[in-house]
Amino acid sequence: IHPIKGKSPQLGENNWVAPNATIVGDVKTGEGCSIWYNAVVRGDVNSIVFGDEVNIQDGAVVHCTFEKTKTTLGNRVSVGHNAIVHGCTVEDDVLIGMGAIVMDQVHIESGSVIAAGAVVLEGTRVPAGSIFAGVPARLVKKVSPELFAGDVQRISQNYRRYASWAKEGSEE
After folding, report:
1. CB 3.0 to 4.6 Å from 109: which of 3, 21, 128, 169, for a disulfide?
2. CB 94 within 8 A of CB 74
3. Which of 33, 66, 68 is nearest to 49 (CA)?
4. Cα–Cα distance between 120 and 125 in angstroms, integer?
5. Which DSSP helix (H) or strand (E) runs through 81?
6. pTM for the model
7. What contacts 140, CB < 8 A, 6 or more positions away?
8. Which of 21, 19, 20, 23 is nearest to 7 (CA)?
């Protein structure tokens, strides 16, 4: 956790940060967030704001663009392993799959899923409750209630559980 240009990360209550995660500069997290092994959250050139219960999984990168785009993640957003989230807005209850790339000025509305490996091109708007997949990412279908409960909500809840295990392990 490093300050840069006079700005230090501000972490909310009950966050868990892996010992080798990197958080730099103008970053603010809500409550109950977790930032996992080898993840990078780099607010060196613009601001990054997380809502509550956001999980940034192993190897993911969250960044922004100098003098152009900030990054905002809503509540209960899961950013999968090795995903890149850059200069965009992500509303509540969104799952960004492993290895996905979300570019500048993308807006992902609530309850959506970005499939593993998808590339969401600059300026794309993902409507609420959509599944976007492919390169470039396109709408493939709507999120079913089963998928929402079985993946989007379950993964978010599981990462709160995993973070509690990690906290317990570091206290032994």
Report:
1. 128
2. yes
3. 33
4. 9
5. none
6. 0.94
7. 115, 131, 132, 133, 134
8. 23
Residue 48 near residue 64 (C-beta atoms within 8 A): yes
The answer to whether 78 touches 155, Cβ cutoff 8 Å, is: yes
Residue 91, both tokens: 């509303």
Burial of residue 155, with CB atoms counted within 10 A of its CB: 0-12 exposed, 13-18 middle, 19 or more buried: middle
pLDDT(172) > 50 = no
Q: What's the full length of the chain, in residues?
A: 172
Going by C-alpha positions, the residue among 79, 135, 81 that lies closest to residue 108 is 79
Round to the nearest angstrom and report the end-to-end CA distance of the chain.
23
Q: Distance (Å, rounded) from C-alpha 83 to C-alpha 98?
A: 5
- In the predicted model, what is the mean pLDDT of the chain? 95
143 in Cβ contact with 125 (< 8 Å):
no
